[in-house]
Amino acid sequence: MRGSIALLWPLVLAACGSQPAENAALPANAAPDEAAAATPAPPKIPCAAPGVADLTPACTFDRTETQAGTILTLRHPDGAFHRLQITRDGRGVIAADGAEPAKVTPLGPDSIEVALGGARYRLPATVREDAAR
Questions:
Q1: Whose C-alpha in 29, 30, 83, 111 is 20 to 30 A from the C-alpha of 1?
Q2: Is there a contact between 91 and 5 (Cβ–Cβ < 8 Å)?
Q3: pTM (predicted TM-score)
Q4: How far apart are the first and last CA of the chain?
Q5: Where does the pLDDT of residue 126 fall: very low under 50, low under 70, confident under 90, or very high at 90 and above?
Q6: What is the pLDDT of residues 61-106, one digit of tens each?
Q7: Where are the domains of the chain?
Q8: Burial readout 32-65 (b: 16 or more C-beta within 10 A, e: otherwise)
Q9: Rounded to an integer, what distance in angstroms lies between the CA atom of residue 75 and that of residue 119?
Q10: Distance CA 56, CA 42 (A)
Q11: What's the CA gap between 76 and 51, in Å, rounded?
Q12: How many Cβ atoms are within 10 Å of 99's Cβ, its own excluded?
């Protein structure tokens, strides 16, 4: 299947909400447990660690704007992570660092699977058929 891929980051970012400042002061009457409960949990994406067959919504991600473009850092619960760079050339994402390339597989019109270093991630994306095949 040949096509171009555009990640649906506005949709993903809407799920993120706003991040509170790390050094923001808590209200004087707020207990630390109340503040933790009020902080939204980071959004989770389906992922599988190397050697694990089933994807589960266990990984988190953050997005960083750099001179090279937008970088996504996908984090596993055990601390492992991969960095992907969003492309504008129809590939969707590429490995942002490391020697191993990311393998991107379209899953349907609204998602892709990215395999990198034995780990797999399911990301929202718009998959478009190429006009020229």
A1: 83
A2: yes
A3: 0.70
A4: 9
A5: confident
A6: 999 999 989 999 999 999 999 999 999 888 889 999 888 999 999 9
A7: 3-15+42-129
A8: eeeeeeeeeeebebbbbbeeeeeeeebbbbeeee
A9: 11
A10: 15
A11: 14
A12: 6
Residue indicated by tokens 């040949």:
2
* CB-CB neighbours of 104 under 10 Å: 20
- Residue 61: strand pairing partners: 74
What letter does residue 36 receive in the DSSP assignment?
H
Q: Which residue has the tokens 């399911």?
A: 122
Length of the chain: 133
Block residue for tokens 């959004």:
43
